[in-house]
Specification:
By secondary structure, the chain is an alpha/beta fold. The chain has helices spanning 2-10, 19-37, 63-76, 105-108, 110-119, 129-139, 246-255, 288-291, 313-327; strands at 50-54, 81-85, 97-99, 123-125, 145-149, 161-167, 195-199, 207-214, 217-219, 226-227, 236-241, 259-264, 284-287, 302-305, 307-310. Helix 3 runs parallel beside helix 5. The longest helix has 19 residues, at 19-37. The protein has two domains: 2-210 and 311-327, P-loop containing nucleotide triphosphate hydrolases (Rossmann fold), CATH 3.40.50.300; 216-305. Helix content is 29%, strand content 21%. The strands form two sheets. Strands 3-4-2-5-1-6-7-8-15 form a nine-stranded mixed beta sheet, sandwiched between helices.
């Protein structure tokens, strides 16, 4: 999968052989969306406003850090948010399930556990996002708005606001839909969403630039232990990433001045102790999403690097303006 993803962004000529399948995929995606617009398929009902944070490409673009930031922004403005996800690669994702910070990533998905731990808000997973949202509302009366991490193409889930995150550096690769390219939907879909966020790179007109700022590294075995990322300079370290775009994590470490050996893994890789048994005793740095899957076997050499999503104040203002225009003030019937 890593090799195929690299080809999407390197314009490998052999991918032209897959373009007939890409055309079929694009037509199918368009017909499905049209069916929802015409009412042939109907979205479910959720009793609180729903915000979808998604993308139009396969792989990580930075949705989860943005969701974490939006949870904080909503709280600061009188809302009490909950989060729903698919729970990708989780054994329990076929049915709706609640998630806590101590849940098993192998059962509910790594991103769900990360969000539950960072946001301290109700989180639910399920392939059926409507069922997950309803479960969230059944289990707690303290949620008056729901954020969906991913799910832009899950049209069964109603939405009041759509926020799309794109990779500001890789953009849309070769411009083809799956399987010849990375697109889930054509770029024209961006004209219909409410806000477009470019993760790093150079945003075009109408896009908001998001930067992921590294925080102090934390011990996977003892998260209360932390040290500045710069404290790893001056020696060789190992860096591993099982995310949609491992290169982004490696670039972050390089910009911090670290000298490291890269160990990329597929997105959502189910890490085992042997995967990180690198030679010598150098520290191993990883993403926070990967760290939640390594807690049970973590040694003292494993460290993860949390990141904070930063956007311009104009994004916050526009986001809140659109939300209030669509949904009004927070529902007082569900306390914040």
């Amino acid at each position: 999968m890593i090799q195929l993803s690299n080809c999407w962004y390197r314009h490998c000529p052999w991918l032209l052989l897959l373009t007939p399948f890409s055309m079929l995929y694009r037509v199918g995606a368009g017909l499905r969306r049209l069916a929802y617009r015409l009412g042939l398929f109907r979205s479910g009902q959720v009793s609180v406003p729903v915000i979808v944070v998604g993308n139009i490409t396969v792989g990580g673009t930075g949705k989860t850090p943005l969701v974490i930031r939006l949870v904080s922004l909503l709280r600061e403005n009188g809302y009490s948010p909950g989060v729903v996800l698919r729970g990708y690669k989780g054994a329990d994702s076929h049915q709706a399930a609640m998630v806590g910070a101590e849940s098993e990533p192998g059962r509910v998905g790594d991103e769900a556990v990360l969000i539950a731990g960072r946001c301290h808000c109700p989180v639910a997973v399920g392939r059926d996002r409507v069922a997950a949202a309803r479960l969230l509302l059944e289990r707690t009366d303290a949620v008056n708005i729901i954020l969906s991490d991913d799910g832009l193409q899950h049209y069964a889930l109603p939405r009041d606001l759509e926020v799309v995150v794109i990779d500001g550096e890789r953009r849309f690769g070769n411009g083809f839909c799956l399987p010849a390219g990375p697109l889930r939907e054509p770029p024209d879909r961006l004209k219909e969403v409410d806000l477009v966020v470019a993760n790093e790179g150079r945003p075009v007109q109408g896009e908001y630039l998001m930067s992921l700022i590294p925080e102090h590294a934390r011990s996977v075995a003892e998260p209360s232990r932390s040290r500045p990322l710069t404290s790893f300079t001056g020696r060789k370290v190992h860096a591993t990433a099982g995310i949609g775009n491992p290169g982004r994590f490696f670039q972050l470490l390089a910009e911090a001045g670290l000298d490291f050996c890269e160990h990329p893994f597929p997105d959502h890789h189910p890490f085992q102790a042997g995967d990180l048994d690198f030679p010598h005793d150098e520290p191993v740095l990883m993403t926070e999403k990967d760290a939640v899957k390594c807690r049970e076997f973590a040694s003292g050499r494993l460290w993860y690097v949390p990141v904070e999503a930063r956007l311009p104040e104009s994004f916050d203002d526009r986001f809140l303006e659109l939300l209030r225009a669509r949904t009004g003030p927070p529902d007082p019937a569900r306390p914040s």
